[in-house]
Amino acid sequence: PSSSAEPGCHSLPGGFSHTHFSVCPPPEMIYRHMAVIDGEMVHFEILDTAGQEDSLQIEEKIKWGDGFAVVYSVTDRCSFDEVMRLCFLINHIHASPRRSSGSEQPPVVIVGNKKDLQFDRMVSTEDGENLSKALKLPFYEISTRDSYEETVVVFNTLYQELMRQGHFSPGSFKRRTVSKLMEKIPRMQASSTLNSAGRSLSFNSFRDYIPE
Fold first, then answer.
1. Among positive and negative, which fits the CA dihedral 185, 110, 121, 12?
2. Which of 208, 180, 178, 159 is nearest to 43 (CA)?
């Protein structure tokens, strides 16, 4: 498959981790970030991918994550049209007999980015809301360029949903899968150190995935 990377350099994980680049970062990056949520230190590893891989690689990356943010650009109708397929793919992979253990599906949120570009908008807020209602998933429309707080809300929602599912205890979040593919993806650590004790979890951020 081929993909169209989200135009610009303001990604969801980069905004959350306060990571800024003078030029656009690689199309794939794992951002490491530490945040205090409800009084607890949480270590995030967030894979930012534009979908530039084959189906087997996509599957490995989905298995790796504890939760998922499926991101489209409000200025790109094609990226919005891919959201439903990606959400079904995530559910299908995590519902497979080899992975099913009676637990709930991993949390997924739908995120419309670049709401600041109103004159370039091709996807209405109502379109996003209707899709989220159909899939019964949380929905946010944000601007990673203009608002750090909006970005934080997305990851707080994923974290709270993992808490709600009741299988979250200290040290419970281990890597879902370890592979040579994931080890090759470059890591970008935020300015904060990750040496402090705390909970560790991984998220995937899929953006603008467009198949051939």
1. negative
2. 159
Residue ranges in the chain assigned as alpha helix (H):
12-16, 55-64, 77-81, 83-94, 125-135, 148-164, 180-184
CA dist 97 and 193 (Å) reads 38
List, for residues 174-190, the tens digit of each pLDDT value. Answer: 445 555 655 666 566 65
pLDDT band at residue 119 under the 50/70/90 scheme? very high
User: How many domains does the chain divide into?
Assistant: 1
In a domain, 20, yes or no: yes
The one-letter amino acid at 50 = A
Nearest CA among 135, 138, 176 for reference residue 157: 138
In a domain, 103, yes or no: yes
> How many C-beta atoms surround the C-beta of residue 19 within 10 A?
19
Phi/psi class of residue 120: alpha, beta or left (left: φ > 0; alpha: ψ in -120 to 50)? Answer: alpha
CATH number at residue 95: 3.40.50.300
Print the domain residue range for 143.
12-207
- pLDDT tens for each residue of 11-64: 454 444 444 434 455 557 788 878 787 787 887 888 877 655 566 777 888 888
Residue 72: both structure tokens together: 């489209």
